[in-house]
Amino acid sequence: MAIAEARRRNPEATKASILRAAERCFVEHGFAGTSMADIARRARVTKSLIHHHFGSKEELWNEVKKSRISHYAEVQRQLMAEADSGERALRGSIEVLFNFLRDNPEYVRLNTWMNLEDPKLSTMHYPDLVTVGVERVREEQQAGRIRRDLDPRSLIVAMISLCTYWFTAKKTGLAHLVPTGDSDEQHLDAIVKVLLEGVLTRSAREAPQTG
To answer: Is the pLDDT of residue 120 over 70?
Structure first.
């Protein structure tokens, strides 16, 4: 059976093929540098079929972003809901983000492209996840475990920035400044220590940890 005929009979397989092709094009050429014709050629489908399944290029990009980040976002939401202290929530959130970026280098490149071209298209632009994080930070501030003089959104931006910049900058030579051992793990350890020391109240830092 011809590929085109097989895809016509299996729309889900067709959509998956288009998403893979779109992601590869976005990774290699960025959003502005990728046309629907480029994606169609790589996916071996017609442009009209892409429009049928996804609409515009922006909507297709949103689906690529969703396919990459949806599982990560769900893990973060669950962590924010279940962590029993501000320290555990913050530490866990940093580690989940850092490990996700380390394990998904193509995602890092996608995010870099989008930030350069149009920040609104950024893969880190996930408003509902930010809202969950802000709410948890405010709860911890009200409980006296996170400093109240910190703006919750600024804290989240700082966390994201410290993690994402490492993976975009390490290829420029910054990783070689770490003389020994695993530079990723050392950088993660530094981020956790800096943020925890900086944002937790003294009583929260001194409280014994259980479990």
So the answer is: no
For 70-104, what is each residue's pLDDT tens digit?
888 889 999 988 988 888 999 999 999 999 999 98
Dist. CA 98–CA 185, nearest whole Å: 10
Q: Roughly how many angstroms between the first and final C-alpha of the chain, as a whole number?
A: 58
Distances (CA, A) of 33 to 9, 49, 113, 123, 199: 31, 21, 10, 17, 41
Closest to 196 (Cα-Cα) out of 146, 161, 162: 146
Give the whole-angstrom CA distance, residue 129 versus residue 77.
7
Alpha-carbon distance of 29 to 131, in angstroms, equals 31
Pair 192, 91: CB distance under 8 Å: yes
Token look-up 């050629």 returns 41
Tell me the C-alpha distance between 207 and 45, whole Å.
60
**Cα–Cα distance between 146 and 204 in angstroms, integer?**
8
Residue ranges in 104-175 assigned as alpha helix (H): 105-117, 127-142, 152-169
CA distances from 61 to 34, 106, 166, 169, 189 (A): 11, 14, 24, 24, 33
